[in-house]
Design goal:
Keywords: Membrane, Transmembrane, Transmembrane helix. With about 375 residues, the chain is α+β, with helices and mostly antiparallel strands. Helix content is about 30%, strand content about 25%. Strands 1, 2, 3, 4, 5, 6, 7, 8, 9, 10, 11, 12 and 13 form a 13-stranded mixed beta sheet that branches. Helix 2 packs across helix 3 and helix 4 crosses helix 5.
Length: about 375
């Protein structure tokens, strides 16, 4: 029988995923395994929570994407653990104690020994890449046009494919008059909000400093000035993948998909140009992803707090991790209208004696229950 001694042993096991996906034969095996290995129950639960966290993304991700994320995390964990830096980080993290295994699972990379946030470190420091260097290296089949905003107000640009770009002041962007080839490629210096026209067969690529943002059709903001120390990408709708230029390749998806950071609505990633690292988190002020559906007004009358949290998940497109068994016995009465997400969370937590924190682009609720 296969030995399961580390979390990655579970995560890379096909029968483990089959069990989580509802396969009856796999369920029989794992129920029997749990009976014979009670000492590994906590590790098993952590692995399950990690997979559930990926599966519960409000903007659904496929089983293939989920497994790519799991595989990438495990590979990154192994690489980092083989370095002296990882050993030092691990020693510091040992002192941390979480209130429940679910919180540990929610901080996915902490479970794998990588610390808080998704970070991708390069082995060698590279010089900064400027907008003009990116343009010079571009292999565009046609000459690029350039739009520069010298005014104090945002300017809107409509591309040939129907995509719209709102260019902020002191920013510039280069693009072809008409997209050809397998990709839609543009080059940004400064800040812009993109609304990309859907085209699954021709991904949209934005090159900004040392990063590449890949989308199929969505809306998001990028801030990447030449003299800034970081690059920021924040998603409003849809899904976006962000890569370092070192790791991005235009070949088959399998060649590079696992090296990027996948963002969903109200998530952002910050690239530190000095450390060459990408860190994922929530945007400062999460917005309703579907304000026209009546989600702005929320009324609850003596309802389980789990109903409230599920409603918030749907309204903001953000994954909220909590122990459903503990919180389903906690009733709450409330009416929300124009409060921010964090104001709503503070009220909810005060009402049921819980607390929350933001970890790795999701919200984690900690509570001892209301029984």
């Amino acid at each position: 029988m296969k030995q399961y001694q580390k979390i990655e042993d579970f995560l890379l096991d096909d029968s483990f995923h089959a069990w989580i996906e509802g396969d009856q034969e796999a369920a029989v095996f794992w129920q029997n395994w749990r009976k014979h290995h009670p000492d590994q129950e906590e590790m098993l639960n952590q692995a399950k929570a990690l997979v559930y966290t990926l599966k519960r993304q409000p903007d659904p991700i496929s089983d293939g994407e989920m497994r790519q994320e799991v595989t990438r995390l495990v590979q990154e964990a192994r690489r980092r653990k083989s370095t002296a830096e990882a050993e030092a980080v691990a020693e510091r993290r040992i002192e941390i104690r979480w209130s429940s295994w679910l919180t540990v699972a929610a901080s996915i990379l902490l479970v794998l020994g990588l610390g808080l946030g998704w970070r991708y470190y390069q082995t060698a420091q590279s010089p900064a890449v400027s907008y003009h260097q990116l343009k010079a290296k571009a292999k565009a089949p046609v000459a690029l046009l350039e739009k520069v905003n010298h005014s104090a107000q945002p300017q809107t640009l409509l591309l040939a494919d129907g995509s719209a770009i709102r260019l902020e002041k002191n920013s510039r962007i280069s693009y072809p008059a008409k997209f050809s080839g397998d990709f839609r490629e543009v080059y940004l210096s400064g800040e812009a909000f993109f609304e990309v026209a859907p085209n699954p067969r021709k991904p949209f690529l934005i090159y900004a400093n040392e990063t590449v943002t890949k989308v199929l059709g969505t809306s998001f903001r990028i801030r990447a000035f030449d003299n800034d120390t970081q690059v920021e990408v924040a998603v409003r709708t849809g899904k976006v993948s962000v890569y370092t230029q070192k790791t991005f390749r235009k070949g088959p998806v399998a060649d590079h998909e696992g090296t990027g950071v996948l963002l969903i609505p109200n998530q952002e990633v910050v690239y530190n140009r000095k450390t060459e690292s990408l860190q994922k988190s929530l945007v400062k002020i999460p917005e309703l992803v579907a304000p026209k559906t009546g989600e702005a007004l929320m009324t609850f009358d003596d309802q389980p707090v789990t109903d409230v949290l599920q409603r918030l998940e749907k309204a903001y497109g953000i994954d909220i991790v909590y122990d459903e068994e503990l919180l389903r016995h906690c009733p709450i009465t409330a009416e929300f209208m124009d409060e921010t997400l964090y104001q709503k969370l503070r009220f909810i937590c005060q009402a049921v004696g819980a607390s929350y924190e933001v970890l790795d682009g999701q919200i984690v609720i900690s509570s001892s229950g209301c029984r």
